[in-house]
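FAQ: What does a ligand-bound record look like?

Like this one, built around nicotinamide-adenine-dinucleotide:
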Amino acid sequence: MADHPQTHSGRIAVVTGGGSGIGRAIAEGLAAAGALVAVLDANGNAAEETAGRIAATGRKAMAVTCDVSLWEDVAAAAREVSAGLGSADILVNNAGISPKHDGKPAPTLEMDPEEWAQVLAVNLTGAFHGVRAFGPAMAARGWGSIVNQSSVSAKRHIAFLGVHYPASKAGLIGMTKQLAGELGPSNINVNALAPGRIETPLMRGVNPEVNEAVRLDTPMRRLGTPEDVAAAALYLTSEAGHFVTGQVLDVAGGWMMS
Ligand SMILES: NC(=O)c1ccc[n+]([C@@H]2O[C@H](COP(=O)([O-])OP(=O)(O)OC[C@H]3O[C@@H](n4cnc5c(N)ncnc54)[C@H](O)[C@@H]3O)[C@@H](O)[C@H]2O)c1
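The answer part, i.e. the structure of the complex:
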């Protein structure tokens, strides 16, 4: 990894949901770019695995078991990261869920209200918890960078999702713009990513015909990779991307153009 541009040298980064898929690629990308990375995940073994993969490249990383929907967990994680690596410069609010039943989303008119509440708690409130726990040290230092993992589904109807998921992802966009205004004076940039269909464990179990239909409807004629999304996160959290704030960056091969 020595030849990877060291755009994040000396930075301390936190990636939620870093145990799998896009979050793992972002954690590994940040580490390769020189950051010390804290991998937070509700699945502690998955977090350990990502941190181990980073350590195997000679970089420093730590794993923290943390359910982002629980404020106590995130507040404790902030203390743990601060003691283990130092206070965070970069926060990537990436943890997210998209419940399916036999590969299909629950129809809204039959959805269990508890399922709605859980998706909002993880995907949207989890991001607020991250900002609330890690943001104050960024503001005190006068430099910070926050990326919220939204989705193309916040902006267009997608048939294979439950209503809670796009609702949570649209909430993240509103939160991103509000935070960009509020935290800009503290030299913290806040942006959202809106990935299209990305090949990760989250989308397995969906009918392959659905993914093929998305591929054919995508001008770049392929689904995205976790590394495609990581590259965008790296730019937004680098010094070079620091003047970019309050933006929603589609990473979707042209499936979404807004
Ligand atoms: N895969 C896609 O096509 C796609 C598209 C757009 C947006 N996204 C978003 O990107 C993010 C990552 O998705 P992915 O495809 O890599 O999913 P994934 O299922 O591969 O990984 C998600 C990770 O989040 C963790 N997680 C789940 N609930 C958590 C919680 N309460 N607290 C902490 N960690 C938790 C999981 O353990 C897992 O390691 C999600 O926010 C997702 O909504 C994904």
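Follow-up question: can I read anything off the structure? Yes, for example: The pocket of nicotinamide-adenine-dinucleotide is lined by residues 16-17, 19-23, 41-43, 46, 66-69, 94-98, 122, 126, 149, 151, 195, 197-198, 200-203 (CB under 6 Å).
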